[in-house]
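In the design runs reported in the main text, the only information available to the sequence generator was the tokenized backbone. The following block is the verbatim input for one such run; it is reproduced so that readers can re-run the procedure and compare outputs position by position.
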């Protein structure tokens, strides 16, 4: 795997939770250096440091984003402030970035943060981009995010899959939480990956992997479970949203976490669907259940004073 990465002039910075992986490409001939995805804003100083080190002191010319979730583009502004690099975003996200419409950009719905950045180019499915020593195809990957793109290098059969395919587990299918179709699109993205037949996948989270068939099979199984029981998908999303916030906050009073969850727009929308009422008591009661379950499962630890922290 490493030999292929070296030939392509790329290195994978595998990140922990809150931040997506960053894929750094060295400059090659007339092709400037670039990075695919930049992590969460809270980790931006670390991202800057890691990218600087990966480039060995050379400048960063371009940033490309697979999609504009906060954990994939949160370092854009910091990198741009140092290198004035050009940023490419999926074409469907172009207008939202130009107007910095936080409602369309999902940061408002999830109450996650992202420092404003400038975009210069739109990535269209079916187009090609030069990164490192090779040409990469831009491939649409709806499902997790309707606007998401992947990058495929056909000669070496390497796929940068972002959140369309992970080695284990399955990313949240966001449109389904907002009353739109998403499961069918996610199946379509998995079918597309199967057709591309990559031999190496660099996911948005977790290590690069080669057993693509088993990752596809497990994603399809999980997708089917969620399709058959959308409430399980919603419960998964509620937990992930809450844990993301706690990983960001590290420690907070239980009452504050419940109040935060009960008023976060995407949660309000989800609970409205399940409880059948938007009454704030119903929302708060449901938020309490979500938090209680995370404590019960040992993912959150509670101190005597009623503070919660991530285990
Ligand atoms: Zn995402």
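Verbatim output:
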């Amino acid at each position: 795997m490493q030999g292929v990465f070296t030939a392509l002039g790329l290195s994978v910075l595998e990140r922990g939770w809150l931040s997506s992986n960053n894929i750094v490409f060295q400059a090659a001939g007339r092709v400037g250096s670039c990075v695919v995805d930049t992590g969460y804003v809270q980790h931006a100083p670390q991202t800057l440091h890691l990218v600087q080190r990966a480039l060995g002191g050379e400048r960063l010319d371009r940033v490309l984003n697979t999609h504009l979730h906060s954990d994939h583009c949160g370092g854009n502004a910091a990198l741009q402030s140092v290198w004035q690099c050009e940023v490419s975003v999926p074409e469907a996200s172009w207008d939202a970035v130009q107007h910095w419409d936080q409602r369309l950009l999902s940061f408002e719905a999830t109450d996650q943060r992202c420092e404003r950045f400038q975009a210069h180019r739109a990535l269209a499915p079916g187009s090609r981009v030069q990164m490192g020593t090779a040409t990469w195809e831009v491939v649409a990957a709806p499902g997790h995010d309707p606007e998401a793109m992947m990058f495929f290098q056909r000669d070496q059969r390497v796929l940068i899959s972002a959140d369309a395919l992970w080695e284990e587990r399955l990313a949240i299918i966001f449109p389904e939480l907002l009353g739109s179709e998403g499961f069918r699109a996610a199946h379509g993205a998995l079918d597309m990956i199967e057709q591309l037949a990559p031999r190496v996948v660099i996911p948005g989270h977790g290590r690069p992997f080669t057993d693509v068939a088993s990752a596809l099979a497990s994603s399809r199984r999980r997708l089917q479970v969620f399709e058959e029981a959308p409430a399980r998908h919603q419960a998964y999303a509620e937990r992930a949203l809450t844990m993301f916030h706690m990983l960001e906050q590290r420690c907070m009073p239980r009452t504050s976490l419940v109040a935060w969850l009960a008023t976060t727009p995407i949660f309000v929308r989800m609970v409205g669907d399940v409880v059948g009422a938007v009454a704030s008591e119903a929302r708060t009661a449901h938020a309490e259940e979500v938090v209680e379950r995370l404590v019960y499962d040992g993912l959150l630890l509670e101190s005597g004073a009623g503070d919660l922290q991530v285990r």
